[in-house]
Design a protein that fits this description.
- The protein has about 475 residues and is an alpha/beta fold.
- It is built from 17 helices and 20 strands.
- The strands form four sheets. A six-stranded parallel beta sheet has the order 7-8-6-9-10-11, sandwiched between helices. Strands 15-16-20-17-18-19 form a six-stranded mixed beta sheet, with helices on both faces. Strands 3-2-1-4-5 form a five-stranded parallel beta sheet.
C-alpha cells in the first residue's frame, strides 16, 4: 500500500468533532502543575478560558511563563472553594480523582475531566490509544516509528512524550495521534473515542491509588467505552482477561499473540512475525531482526505491528522500523559490562508482573536490584523466578522490609541505602558471566522524582564503578 493510500485510510470516515464544546468565557481550574497540567492550562487560555492553575507545591518552574499568558497561579494547596466555584475542573493524571477538593467540586455539580479528555475534544485527527500494565511506552513509540515509515503523519504523546493537549494546534484530518494512556488518564475520560484502542495486558498495579484490581481494570476498560462498529480494538490473545475486555465492546477485535495459536491476527511463525488472515501468512519482519531484549518486548513488537497493519502499513515499513528500533531508555536497556557482568536498566518495571517478565529474561547468576514505593500486588509471585535462577536481591527504599519477608528462602536478600550502594553490593554478589538487573517492582517516589531519575542514577552508579 502506498504512503498516500495509508494516509487516506487513516483519515477515512473521520468525523470532525471540533463540535460544540467551548470554554470561551468559562472559569476553568486546572489541578496539577506538571507537564500535562501546564499543557492543558496553555490550551485553555488559547481557547478563551479564564484559567487558574493550582498545585500543592509552593512554586513552579514554569510559573513566570504561565503568569505571562494570563494564567492565575494558586500554589501551596488546592482550595475547595476555588474548584467548587469554577465552571470546569481539569485534572492532571497525577492528581487522584478522589482528592477532597475535587470531590467537593463534583458535589457542587462542577464537571471534572482529565487532560486527555479535554484535548481529545478538539483534535481533528484520529486517535490510536494504547494502554496496558506493561509495555505501553515501547509499543507506542514503535507504532509511531512504523507509521512514519509508512508515510503517515503520526504524532506520539500522552503518557509518553508531549502531552496530548500540546498536539491540538498541530492536529489535522490527516494526523494520527498515537497516544499512550494510563489508568489515571482513562478514569477521567467521558467522550474520549479512539479509532484504534489497544490493551496490551492486564495485571495488578497501582493498588496504592485504585481501591482494587477490579477498579483498576474498570479504568483500563474505558479505552473501549466510546468505540463503535467502525473502530478497532487490538488485544493480546495471550492474556485472556485483556482479550475479554476488548471483546466486550462494539469494535472489531484484532488479535496479536506470541504464544497462543491464531487463525487470524499478528503472531510468530517459522522465525517471522506474520499477519495471518484467510489468504495465509503475510511476512512482516524476521524475529532475528528484533533488537529488543526479552520475550515480553517481542509481544510489544507484535502489538505495534498489529496496530500499524490496521492503519494500512505495508510489510517493508514494518520491517524497516522494527529493525532500526533499539528500544527505549529505562526499558531493558543494556547499560554496559564490567569484568564480565552485564548491567541492565529496567527502571520502568514498576509493578510485580513487569519485574517478573524482566527476571525471566535471564538465566542463572542474576542479581536484581528491587524496591521503592510499593504499589500493591503479591511479591511472592516472584519467588519461583528468583529461586530457579539462584538469584540474589538487593532491596532498596520503603519496600525493602517487604522484600526481605517475601523472598525469604527463595533468594538471598541484601539491603542498600542508596542506588550507588545497591550497585556496589550487586557487583560484589555477581559472578563473571552473570547479570545485574534493575527491576524495581515498585514506584520510585520514595527516593527519586520518577522512574527516569531512578534509571539515570543506576546508570551513573555503573559508570562511576566502571571508571574505578
Amino acid at each position: 500500500m502506498s504512503a498516500a493510500a495509508v494516509a487516506e485510510r487513516a483519515t477515512h470516515g473521520r468525523q470532525i468533532e471540533m463540535n460544540e464544546f467551548t470554554v470561551r468565557g468559562k472559569r476553568v481550574v486546572v489541578v496539577g502543575g506538571a507537564a500535562s497540567g501546564t499543557a492543558a492550562a496553555r490550551l485553555l487560555v488559547e481557547r478563551g478560558a479564564a484559567v487558574t492553575l493550582t498545585d500543592i507545591r509552593p512554586a513552579l518552574d514554569q510559573g513566570p511563563d504561565l503568569a505571562a499568558l494570563g494564567i492565575t497561579l494558586a500554589l501551596g494547596s488546592h482550595s475547595e472553594a476555588l474548584l467548587a466555584e469554577s465552571d470546569l475542573v481539569v485534572l492532571s493524571p497525577g492528581v487522584p480523582a478522589g482528592q477532597p477538593a475535587v470531590a467537593a467540586a463534583r458535589a457542587a455539580g462542577v464537571p471534572v475531566i482529565g487532560e486527555i479528555e479535554l484535548a481529545s475534544r478538539w483534535l481533528r485527527g484520529r486517535v490510536v490509544a494504547i494502554t496496558g500494565t506493561k509495555g505501553k511506552s515501547t509499543t507506542t513509540a514503535l507504532t509511531g516509528r512504523i507509521l512514519e515509515a509508512a508515510g503517515v503523519r503520526a504524532l506520539v504523546g500522552g503518557n509518553i512524550g508531549p502531552p496530548l493537549a500540546g498536539q491540538v494546534a498541530g492536529s489535522t484530518p490527516e494526523t494520527v495521534h498515537v497516544v499512550e494512556v494510563s489508568s489515571f488518564q482513562l478514569e477521567t475520560t467521558d467522550t474520549f473515542h479512539p479509532w484504534i484502542a489497544a490493551l496490551l495486558n492486564l495485571s495488578a498495579d497501582h493498588l496504592d491509588r485504585h481501591a482494587s484490581v477490579e477498579e483498576y481494570a474498570a479504568a483500563k476498560s474505558r479505552i473501549f467505552a466510546r468505540q463503535t462498529e467502525r473502530d478497532v480494538a487490538v488485544a493480546n490473545a495471550d492474556d485472556p482477561r485483556a482479550l475479554a475486555m476488548a471483546s466486550g465492546g462494539r469494535a472489531r477485535v484484532v488479535r496479536f499473540a506470541r504464544d497462543a495459536h491464531l487463525d487470524e491476527g499478528v503472531t510468530v511463525a517459522d522465525g517471522w512475525i506474520v499477519d495471518r488472515g484467510a489468504g495465509g501468512d503475510t511476512r512482516l519482519v524476521r524475529t532475528g531482526d528484533v533488537r529488543l531484549t526479552g520475550p515480553h518486548l517481542l509481544a510489544d513488537v507484535l502489538a505495534a505491528a498489529a496496530i500499524a497493519r490496521v492503519v494500512g502499513a505495508a510489510p517493508p515499513a514494518v520491517a524497516g522500523a522494527v529493525a532500526s528500533f533499539t528500544g527505549l531508555e529505562h526499558a531493558m536497556e543494556l547499560v554496559g559490562e564490567i569484568r564480565g557482568v552485564r548491567f541492565v536498566n529496567d527502571s520502568k518495571a514498576t509493578n510485580v508482573d513487569a519485574a517478573r517478565q524482566a527476571i525471566e529474561t535471564f538465566g542463572r547468576g542474576l542479581v536484581v536490584i528491587m524496591g521503592g514505593r510499593f504499589k500493591g500486588g503479591d511479591l511472592r509471585r516472584l519467588r519461583p523466578a528468583l529461586a530457579s535462577r539462584g538469584a540474589t536481591v538487593v532491596a532498596i527504599g520503603e519496600a525493602a522490609p517487604l522484600m526481605q519477608d517475601a523472598f525469604d528462602g527463595a533468594a538471598a536478600v541484601h539491603t542498600a541505602g542508596s542506588m550507588a550502594e545497591a550497585v556496589r553490593t550487586a557487583m560484589a554478589a555477581a559472578a563473571p558471566g552473570g547479570s545485574v538487573l534493575l527491576a524495581p517492582a515498585c514506584a520510585s517516589f520514595d527516593m527519586f522524582e520518577n522512574y527516569a531519575a531512578r534509571g539515570r542514577a543506576f546508570k551513573a552508579a555503573v559508570a562511576a564503578m566502571r571508571e574505578e
